[in-house]
Each structure stands twice: as structure tokens, then as C-alpha cells.
């Protein structure tokens, strides 16, 4: 049976993996883990990363949570579909850009990870490494 939300210890381990991968790439990022409701379980930002970048990471995580898939593919899809993009933009709390990853437990989405600050492709790559540790 899946957990209701990512456990704090697991969330912190995933954040540590994300920050380590960002450091390996000589990037500075913010990383956020949210639960099924899009509420923060754990968050971290590297030295020099602004608070707005942390909010971007949270919204990317919320988008991945609600979409149930990494946000890179929907972001590419939305670039070709302005009507769907406008609908999602109206929700306000989600940001469909590369860097969001659903967190699964026993196949069910129970939360998500969001990464921001290094640019779309690096954010996606950093998050992919971090969420891959689960």
C-alpha cells in the first residue's frame, strides 16, 4: 500500500542527491519535495540561489504531482498547444517547465520533486538523477 506522502527522511535524501548532482555540474539550484496536495515536505536552496527560484521549484513539483509525469514532456507539448497552455497557466500554483518529477510509491503518485535554477535541461537532468535514487 502506498504511503500518503514522501517520508521526511527520504525527501531529505532526494534533496541531498539533487544538490550533490548540481554541485557536480557546477550549478546552483533550489529543490523542493511536495506531497499529494502540493504542500512542501522538504526544501533546500544552495548558497546564492534566490527565494523566487525556490518557489519555481515548488510549482514545478506541484505540476509533476498533478500531471503524474515529468514536466519536460508536457512543457514541450504545451509549446505547441497555446489553448492548453493557457488553461494550465490559469491554475497559478503549477508551473509546467522541465524540472518536475512525480514521486511514486507502489505505482501511485504520492508527491513530487521540483528543481530550478540551472536552466531547463540541467534542471531536468539533476532531478532525473535525484528521483532515480528512489
From TrEMBL:
<protein>
    <recommendedName>
        <fullName>GlcG protein</fullName>
    </recommendedName>
</protein>
<dbReference type="Pfam" id="PF03928">
    <property type="entry name" value="HbpS-like"/>
</dbReference>
<dbReference type="InterPro" id="IPR038084">
    <property type="entry name" value="PduO/GlcC-like_sf"/>
</dbReference>
<dbReference type="InterPro" id="IPR005624">
    <property type="entry name" value="PduO/GlcC-like"/>
</dbReference>
<dbReference type="InterPro" id="IPR052517">
    <property type="entry name" value="GlcG_carb_metab_protein"/>
</dbReference>
